[in-house]
Amino acid sequence: MSVLVYTEHAEGKFKKSSFEVVSYGAAIAQQLGTNLVALSIGNVSSDELNKLAQYGASKILSVSEDAYKSFVNQAYGAVIAQAAQKEGANVVVLSASFSGKGLAPRVAVKLNAAYVDGAVSLPDTTNGFMVRKGAFSGKAFADVSISSENKVIALMPNAYKVVENSQNPNVEAFTPVAGSNDFATMIKEIVRASDKVSLPDAELVVSAGRGMKGPENWGMIEELAQLLGAATACSKPVSDAHWRPHSEHVGQTGIAVSPNLYIAIGISGAIQHLAGVSSSKVIVVINKDPEAPFFKAADYGIVGDAFEVVPQLISAIKEFKAVNA
Amino acid sequence: MKILVCISNVPDTTTKINFTDDHKSFVSNGVTFIINPYDEIALTRALEISEANAGSTVTVIHVGDASAEPTIRKALAIGATDAVRINANARDAFFVASQIANYAKEQGFDLILTGRESIDYNGAQVASMIGELLNIPSISIVKSLTLDGTTVTLEREIEGGKEVISCPLPLVASASEGMAEPRIAGMRGIMSARTKTLAVIEPSDVPALQTITNYDKPAPRSQVKLVNVDDVKGLVTLLNQEAKVI
Ligand SMILES: Cc1cc2nc3c(=O)[nH]c(=O)nc-3n(C[C@H](O)[C@H](O)[C@H](O)COP(=O)(O)OP(=O)(O)OC[C@H]3O[C@@H](n4cnc5c(N)ncnc54)[C@H](O)[C@@H]3O)c2cc1C
Ligand SMILES: Nc1ncnc2c1ncn2[C@@H]1O[C@H](COP(=O)(O)O)[C@@H](O)[C@H]1O
Prior knowledge:
Number of strands of chain B: 13
CATH class of chain B: Alpha Beta
Distance between the termini of chain B: 53 Å
Structural class of chain B: alpha/beta
Strand content of chain B: 25-35%
Number of helices of chain A: 8
Number of domains of chain B: 1
Largest interface: A-B, 103 and 83 residues
Oligomer: heterodimer
Strand content of chain A: 25-35%
Bound molecules: flavin-adenine dinucleotide, adenosine monophosphate
């Protein structure tokens, strides 16, 4: 028995969500009295692989064959399942990242495992095996009880804190066996806006809505976000009107986020918007209408015109940074 | 092109979610059900592809009981060719995916589309599971899908960017915002939907691996702390010292 985690990387560097997954997997391994194996696929340097040991992986499997250099959903799913079988792992953990969401169900089917997507806390193993996940698009939580021997869990980004738990690095090469149809798809291009913080993993998010009047007014939103090291987001009508890209749309029909800080500017706080942001730890609302429903879901608020408040907020943060640098 | 679109029947987005006193089930009394918004996007894209390729069909499939028939009829009104309902209680995503994969195996579809996730259980599970069960590629959270002969080019969301993928048919894809602008049903569509085929098929036997044993609502937030508009600096201080988020 063991616990296996799949650790995603971007261009050879592990993401924060991968360290979250390792920390989470290590805690489950401890609960079950077993050890944690981390799996990495694609070319990752040994220095980078060794980082996984810092968070509790006592063994690190690395697949470095050329065929596996870039992400192929079907092929990677097969590798993860094979690694689980090889290690006798009956709990497999991935990040509920975009890629993880596509992979995990395939792994679960291969392993005849129950699959819990979007887990928000550690399993309760006192009486069986129960995992809490978000449901109804942030309006509720559901506890899923698993009866199968094998389990696959996709952990929500930002839901579990990275914990240092140093082990001796122990990297082992792993050579998977490719299935008949594993490499049917091919990546033609990857486009990354590298200067921006990615929204689903962001710890801080600055979001704006129709109150901004038009796309030409997003300069101050971007400036505020950049100053804070935050990702930018928007409400649905804003992306529908093509003021901002669809990838920034948060809410029930957009991306669900759970940052430490969510700043909502000129957003009314419709139920569909709140659904995707209500699990943020702290919410700040800036809106000129004191009756805006968002104030009911906020921790801090300023009733005022965004065109006056945001520039002031930018200078206040600059000042704060200058003092606290 | 034979296209299959998977439709789930979900509470309207404005629904206030409530559970029974024992926290074991969702109270659906008085709730309006709709086509899952992402499935509407998938359906629209399927119709666009079918219109551009003469002789194509778009079948919608739903796993669930008869209460979903108005939603299925709505998909027919939007323009699907015909519909299938697998008459079963959709216990979990694996059950749903297995039923759909079995049907697809018999019928042979070129393209299977789902929504990126259902807005009730948010699983994002069904598409990949169908792909695995049929041993065909699955691409999740797709914001653009174009067909050129038998090759499909897809753009999938990744953290901080996108990936452009080329893939042969057959294939499963889950639709996200951007793939199409959902269509609404016109009067003619609504009239013709009444006479379109809605076949009802009994499910195959699939074991359940999991059950939801408890639901909770998030704890309500405490009252908002309002900062005066003349004291924006005060907000920064609160965020730093009280909330400790900056
Ligand atoms: C099926 C469905 C799904 C949906 N899914 C989503 C979703 O996922 N995400 C989402 O966001 N929405 C979603 N919506 C839309 C949602 O219902 C709201 O229409 C939307 O969230 C409103 O966006 P908004 O707050 O930006 O705009 P508005 O409702 O127009 O609000 C603008 C706000 O800005 C304030 N304002 C105006 N000027 C200023 C100023 N100068 N300074 C400060 N404040 C100002 C106003 O007081 C107002 O509160 C969905 C709707 C449906 C029907
Ligand atoms: N009961 C169902 N019947 C048919 N399709 C479904 C059903 N449930 C989910 N789906 C499809 O699978 C997608 C993802 O659902 P889920 O995995 O539950 O998040 C949905 O957008 C639908 O396209």
